[in-house]
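Hi everyone, sorry if this is the wrong subforum. Our group has a chain we'd like a structural model of before ordering constructs, and none of us has done structure prediction before. Sequence below.
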Amino acid sequence: MLASIFLSLLMSQVVTPAPSLMGLQQVALQEEVSVLVNGVLQFSQALHNLYNSMAQKFDTIKQRTDFYQQGLKAEGTRLKQQSQAKKEELQKMLVSHQNTLLQVKVLEEKLSSMDHQDVQNKEWEFAAVKAHVQQQNLTIWFLLGATKQQQEQMAEQAKQLLRIQEQHINELHSLHRWLHVRKQIVPYKQLPLIPCLHSHRLRDIKPT
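Answer:
Right subforum, don't worry. Here is the predicted structure as tokens:
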């Protein structure tokens, strides 16, 4: 009888430490889970902030590109209108110049058939026509130079627009590659933010 009582007391002393050891293991596991959850949340928050920053940069690039394109398009339209006006004016001057040359030719034919006295009387008319032709030549030369300058400006603006577009395309490609890498690193579309970690359970983190 005494032996059985002693054995019962001994068994109770041997068995009782097991729950205490299991409790310590559970506490340690909960602490590891808590650390893991906090790390995942901090990483998610950092990625979220970085994503917002890159999205704002993307919007800024797009707005700046649209602004440059609108400005260059308006400037190109203005130069095109000016070039068209200069071209029409040049065409009118060429027609007038051809008419003047025709008049000079007619006067030369008349002078060849006139005597010396008539030639002296008509010298002033010939000189006036010659001066008019020289003035037209000068005007045509000026218009040709202005037209060429406008064409060069339009070509330079086209190159500038192309450079800006290439620069922004490269920036957008870099942003696209970064987003692609981010999706590979974090397979979830968005990790939820848990403001309070009362339970410290991994099941609170679910992919959307």
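For your construct planning: The radius of gyration is 46 Å. The chain is about 85% helix and 0% strand.
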